[in-house]
């Protein structure tokens, strides 16, 4: 019985480790590529010297299997295996659609 519980625990921890991936929230800025969306993620941080909040944005190429999102949609993307040269993120969910 201990062998089955140990293997079950090992399987559950392996699954939990594989499901834990970085997630970011951003806005879709382009959907011109087939099954690809460009998502702009904005972050704010306190500047160490000037003590003011600074806004920086970065664009991520995201895999959108069913072409579900459109320009202006707010989405959640998650890290995944490399899909192509620059595509390392996958579309998780669409939070809000741009009407």
Concise account of the structure shown:
The protein is α+β, with helices and mostly antiparallel strands and 99 residues long.
Strand runs, count: 5
Tell me the series of helices and strands, N- to C-terminal: HEEEEE
Round the Cα radius of gyration to an integer and report it: 18 Å
Count of domain modules:
1
CATH-defined fold name: OB fold (Dihydrolipoamide Acetyltransferase, E2P)
Q: In one word, what is the shape?
A: globular
CATH H level, superfamily name:
Nucleic acid-binding proteins
CATH architecture descriptor: Beta Barrel
Detail the poorly predicted runs. Answer: none
Distance between the termini: 57 Å
CATH class: Mainly Beta
The chain-level structural class is alpha+beta
The major β-sheet equals: 5 strands, mixed, barrel
Helix content: 10-25%
Q: Tally the helices: what do you get?
A: 1
Mean pLDDT: 87
Side by side, the strands of the main sheet go 1-2-3-5-4
Indicate the proportion of strand residues: 35-45%
Keywords:
about 100 residues; OB fold (Dihydrolipoamide Acetyltransferase, E2P); about 45% strand; alpha+beta; single chain; 5-stranded mixed beta barrel
